Amino acid sequence: MSNITRITPGVRMSKATIFNGVAYLCGQVPDNTECGISDQARNMLEKVDALLKEVGSDRKHVLSVMVYLRDMKDFAGFNAVWDTWFEEGYAPARACIEARLARPELLCEVSVTAAVIAN
């Protein structure tokens, strides 16, 4: 018997899955896509904050992030926002790759893994 908790499970995916005190968030993309990389990144990270709270975690407990950028020319712009999102000393393990995203107007997406601190 498993202790897997699925947050808002759907046919294709759940918003998040929790197992052994670790939350795996589904890919997060910005809602507002009629703007540049900085605003898309900020909007997307606000969504990550909300989902972290929903699973009982926060930025200080993010373990790993995979960043997907539509174009690596946005790397510096994304990082300018990213670098203000974490308090000093709390940056997670991270990788960043260029990828074709689900919709052409999306400039960024993140996949986040975090430790759960509360239920």
Automatic annotation (TrEMBL):
Gene3D superfamilies: RutC-like. InterPro entries: RutC-like_sf, YjgF/YER057c/UK114, YoaB-like. It holds the Pfam family Ribonuc_L-PSP. This is Enamine deaminase RidA, house cleaning of reactive enamine intermediates, YjgF/YER057c/UK114 family. It comes from Halodesulfovibrio aestuarii.
